[in-house]
């Protein structure tokens, strides 16, 4: 607040009166501050990508309307991140009665103790200034959360220590919700609260008061309540009691990034990269993000659980780390990605996707490797012509096949071996041996950096393998490309 910019902000109720400060509800405070930000063209939420025309306008509408609201979406859709930025709509500081557990308004205290202090001290009543960050609290809903945790309970130890009768309201130990009075309280994963605990929230939402044990309390709390939930849980019968659902003013649906570009912005903003020397080409970054998109369409992945944006973030971090590790072993020239680095992200992917029964039968690592392969092929077809095995006339290949020289190279029985730990010079020599490989990259997807040119050459081989044009075998960290027909005969026992 502007009052706090003074050399000496008010420290007593009398000084606060002289300053001209006026009380207002939390909802009105957030509304007025939001109006100022909108009028001034200021951003309310930072680092939230892809919600500018969908989610964020709905949140702003809810704030302007003075609504308590719930963010409904699958995991990894920035629900918690959004809720934690809501305090930006609060005043920088708020005056409270010094020593009050309930952050009480000096002009309108609500607890018996604070009311007595006001009567006795009048304008000499001491006040403190509460920063906005301390006016936001959140609780993860778990089955063991109790009414005492959220609202409060009788504290017999306090009664004995202060020699108070058990019927005195001062023996109450306040829970986290009353202690957030005049602030914002968030409950994450609301459906996980037991129904009897959800009942305890009804009065807070409807009447702005609470009940503790047998005390006939009327504590007019002033706060904004916000929630988050997964739609899989939220819509299951009995997970959220109907009266509570009815009292939540607005239900706002979140969603995953709708484009690779949006997903990349999220990953770049969230990923922790400890080696800034590693250069990740755009098409490789697109492949990493495409893995999540492939997973969200895969029949092996449980779509009701969702595929978090954290898949792309963790995969990107693992990818860079694998490049860094090889560079340390082989020298600085190897501080550049290879296609094998994409498969190094399998542990980051497999641990973050929920599989259906068929996926479990295949195995998480196999499903993750398949998703990476599908992502590679998707990006490959954006830059190169689709490989064709046969023409309509039955010829082995079309006459204008741009991959003919590469296919003939492997068709003559030659093989190409690459590995994660292969030194750069050997890696380069082996790739340049493949006839036609350098030419097709130069014709369709050339790069100025020689290292990226090699990476794109390897990219072509992966694309041809994904389209069943050439064969590929893996042995630990080594990869061998060869003729698909010879590979089939070998599998049938026709070739030693």
Q: Compute the gyration radius: what is it?
A: 31 Å
Task: Let me know the number of strands.
Answer: 12
Indicate the percent of residues in helices.
40-55%
Looking across the biggest beta sheet, what order are the strands in?
Answer: 4-7-8-1-9
Topology of helices and strands:
Layout: H1 13-19, H2 26-40, H3 55-64, E1 69-72, H4 79-83, E2 93-97, H5 112-121, E3 127-131, E4 136-140, H6 147-150, E5 152-154, H7 156-161, E6 172-174, E7 183-188, H8 195-199, H9 202-206, E8 223-229, H10 231-234, H11 242-247, E9 250-253, H12 260-270, H13 282-295, H14 310-330, H15 340-343, H16 346-350, H17 357-362, H18 364-383, H19 404-411, E10 416-419, H20 424-432, H21 437-444, H22 450-466, E11 470-475, E12 478-483, H23 484-492
Parallel strand pairs: 1-8, 1-9, 4-7, 7-8
Antiparallel strand pairs: 2-3, 5-6, 10-12, 11-12
Helix pairs in contact: 12-13, 12-14, 13-14, 13-18, 18-22, 21-22
Describe the structure.
- It is a single chain.
- The chain has helices at 13-19, 26-40, 55-64, 79-83, 112-121, 147-150, 156-161, 195-199, 202-206, 231-234, 242-247, 260-270, 282-295, 310-330, 340-343, 346-350, 357-362, 364-383, 404-411, 424-432, 437-444, 450-466, 484-492; strands at 69-72, 93-97, 127-131, 136-140, 152-154, 172-174, 183-188, 223-229, 250-253, 416-419, 470-475, 478-483.
- The chain is of the alpha/beta class and 496 residues long.
- Helix 12 crosses helix 13 and helix 13 packs across helix 14.
- Residues 234-238 have low confidence and may be disordered.
- The protein has 23 helices and twelve strands.
- A hairpin with a 2-residue loop joins strand 11 (470-475) and strand 12 (478-483).
- Strands 4-7-8-1-9 form a five-stranded parallel sheet.
- It folds into three domains: 2-253, P-loop containing nucleotide triphosphate hydrolases (Rossmann fold, 3-Layer(aba) Sandwich); 260-383, Helicase, Ruva Protein, domain 3; 404-492, no CATH class.
